Amino acid sequence: MAEAQNSPTSGFATAGGPPPVGSTTAGAIAVAVEADSTVATRMSAPPSFDVADFPVPHGREEEWRFTPLERLRGLHDGTAVATGDGVKVAVDAPEGVIVETVGRDDARLGKAGTPVDRVAAQAYSAFERASVVTVPKETVLTEPIRIAVHGEGGVAYGHQVIELGAFAEAVVVIDHTGDAVLAANVDYILGDGAKLTVVSVQDWDDKAVHAGQHNALVGRDASLKSIIVTFGGDLVRLHPRVNYAGPGGEVEMFGLYFTEKGQHQEHRLFVDHNVPHCKSNVIYKGALQGENAHAVWIGDVLIEAAAEGTDTYEMNRNLVLTDGARVDSVPNLEIETGEIVGAGHASATGRFDDEQLFYLMARGIPEHEARRLVVRGFFAELVQQIGVPDIEERLIAKIEQELEASVA
């Protein structure tokens, strides 16, 4: 294995760089489900790399109305200044993978997508050096690339690029741990016929804040599997976005989140079917427990007029384990052509199934064990999608740890 150890400035802004330019109620369950609204009206400003093109949000904007701005610790208004103790990044890659630290003028930066809100634009404007991981064309990796992002208590802005050449195949694990206030953009660039599985784990400490935009550019006949897992942090707000560079692209987007007391976890997805004969499948599942646990899922899919032959589906399911938690689930589907294979969306939120619990307890299984089995079953299909055994085992252990804490 070839290992590259990056300094805190590798892909993340530090001191001396460019200056960075309503909540839950105590009810049992609050659910918002909205459909048939257009994606275009959901952004208050057009995409831009310039932070000045985005006004400071006030919480009334469509894309910010669920986010508690005061908990972003200044990432949204320019008051969060990068420090030298923000995060450290370490890349562990198999032979044949190229790991680089590049300057802001590298042509690959921003190729996969443009910032769509002020925090993402701030991250792009403020980083000094970026990490670029390249898998050359026709290279098929048998071991995953592992990127460790560890917070050390400060503020950081960053940019990472994962690029696969034509017909390359790779699995990438991006693991976020520690404590930090982080805004970062991650770009995935897939060449024609490439296959990428990327697992992004947010296992932050309790006080961490993480806002990120993930941009994917999927080449002709290429396939992307994205798995986002969110457990820790005070506030996590992620914005995965997909565009297709040619026909035949296939995208699977899976998400798993466990929202605890007082946590805010927000996932805002956008899939732009802009070319013909592409597929997308989105499945996100979340479990919530504790007072003021708040999960937000926004799923936007746009099928443009040129995207004939599109096949797409998105689903969000939420399991509320205790009173005092809130879920906002908003699927949106906009179709500009009738020449498609299929398109649909679904959203469901419910309490813990007392009948399932009773069934198991009637067969001699203790209540806490029965609850554990039901929640494990709820998440099982998504955990199995990861395909990296040590990560799967770690996530199952994390789920059980969260459940044990609720029993205690």
UniProtKB/TrEMBL annotation:
GO terms for biological process: iron-sulfur cluster assembly. Pfam families: SUFBD_core. SUPFAM superfamilies: Stabilizer of iron transporter SufD. Residues 151-378 form the SUF system FeS cluster assembly SufBD core domain. Residues 1-12 have a biased composition (Polar residues). Residues 1-20 are annotated as: Disordered. Belongs to the iron-sulfur cluster assembly SufBD family. This is UPF0051 protein Rv1462/MT1509. It comes from Streptomyces leeuwenhoekii.
